[in-house]
Write a structure and sequence with these properties.
Layout lengths: L12 H5 L3 E11 L8 E6 L5 E6 L6 H4 L3 E5 L5 E3 L2 E3 L2 E2 L1 E3 L5 E3 L11 E2 L1
Antiparallel strand pairs: 1-2, 1-4, 1-10, 2-3, 4-7, 5-6, 8-9
């Protein structure tokens, strides 16, 4: 359960609407032993936006369970270097009380490249 201390301050809606949030399909998952915290290197197909890669701390999922999974990602935040790896999008998920990530999932009818808003 979230307390009022965990809530973020109000922000301008333009900040949200400036993000490009899309449906992607995971096409590859690799171990990422160079990362400080356990993580995978994930490549995802975002349809017309292309195949992008990210580093994601979602090792509570077996790699084979992630393969071909539909995800939700923010694709216009720029590149970030993580242990020498260029992360190009942010995969979205929620955190449970123990800190485990639960990936957000679009409806089964969604296809890579669909916009989320």
């Amino acid at each position: 359960m979230t307390s009022s201390d965990d809530l973020k301050q109000q922000t301008d809606p333009a900040h949200f609407f400036a993000t490009d949030i899309r449906v992607g399909r995971i096409v590859s998952v690799e171990e990422f032993p160079e990362a400080r915290k356990p993580a995978y290197k994930i490549k995802s197909d975002f349809g017309p936006a292309g195949v992008l890669q990210t580093s994601a701390q979602v090792t509570n999922y077996p790699a084979e369970e992630l393969q071909d999974r539909l995800i939700v990602g923010v694709i216009n935040l720029g590149r970030k270097r993580i242990a020498g790896f260029a992360s190009e999008f942010l995969v979205l998920g929620s955190y449970d009380a123990d800190g485990a990530v639960h990936l957000l999932a679009p409806a089964a009818a969604a296809v890579p490249g669909d916009t989320v808003g």
